[in-house]
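## retry 2 of 3
previous attempt timed out at serialization; input unchanged, resubmitting
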Amino acid sequence: MIKTVLRRSLLSGAAALFLQGFSVAALSQSVDCEANTSIHCGSAPSAVFDANGRLWTAFVQSEQVFVSYSDDQGTSYSEPVAVNPIPEDAEHNGENRPKIIVDQDGTIYISWTLKTSPRFTGEIRFSRSTDGGKSFEAPRTINDDNLFAGHRFETLYQNQAGHLYLTWIDKRDLEAHLADDREYAGAAVYYAVSKDQGKTFSDNYRVADHSCECCRIAIAPRGPENIAILWRQIFGETTRDHAIAVLTPNGATLETHRASYDEWQIDACPHHGPTMVQSSLSGDYHMSWFTNGDLHQGIYYGKFSFDSQQPDQVYRVDGSPGAGHPYLGEFNDTLHLIWKGFDGEQSTVQLIRSFDDGASWTDPTVLATTTQGSDHPLVVTHDDGLYLSWHSDEYGYVFQKFTDRSESLSSD
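## retry succeeded, writing output
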């Protein structure tokens, strides 16, 4: 069950509150989170704009995945609609949250991970709405092995051709090796594809063995049909750096390369997945990640080219303790990188920009601070700019445009 706060002062469409110049909205009265379903009271929200500029969000509350929309860019929200009418233990943490996509026809796609036991087992779940979010189809399980095993940390992506890709971390091969008394490090990366707007999905395709067990997967386009994915991979016995590969809608993996060289020796999962966007200038792939390796420690940026098959322009973003969970976005040929830091007393959401395709970066700007618990910060892209999507115990859900601002939001 998620943690609920009996009464909480939340961000919504009442009087404006200005904190160091960054405008947010604040409720003049508190909200009873035990009696109300709200994105402010839920956990691990995701957000996306549809073709008409409506903001759609998905979040978890009381073991249900809910969808709500906003027609005023996050000032107010519609009454949430349950995706799964029967409660189930939907994962809701920074690395493992429900995902939402709305296509050009208005079909809404939702994916999440169902936790099936405390032993890190799960199922990859999917549902869709074809009536504008009024109702959702009965949830389906996409992993096709019928095993009581780990299927977790899914990522949902739709490319230019309309193919719906669903990738995840899968432990079916670990279970098979254990049954035969064979060693197997980590898990594997699998995916499935729908070519008919989520009506059906392909068989499950294996991308790579020996992935890390609990880190999010990043996806970016690779032409109109294919995608590129970036994930934390086990190299050798205990080195947990990153790999990149190109996937096709027919189950073929075209290329697989090592994408980071940090030499992080750890026989455990860091719970720090990467982020990636394709450059509109070069076509290469901007990447950012966290590491505590022998060569690098902290948050790093790099650019990967499939031509050179090597990371380039590797840059240390933040090496301070507590820095983590970066997220990239690009708008008007400008690259933006946000991340979360913690100085022992407060968490901060920080931003840097690059105007030359990642070759150099601005000094950090603080977008938000809080002394209370908070989620990972995310970037949502729209035609008019980039938005911060962030949830905290202090503010509730914050959705704010930041591409045209240099001011900061502070909790004091």
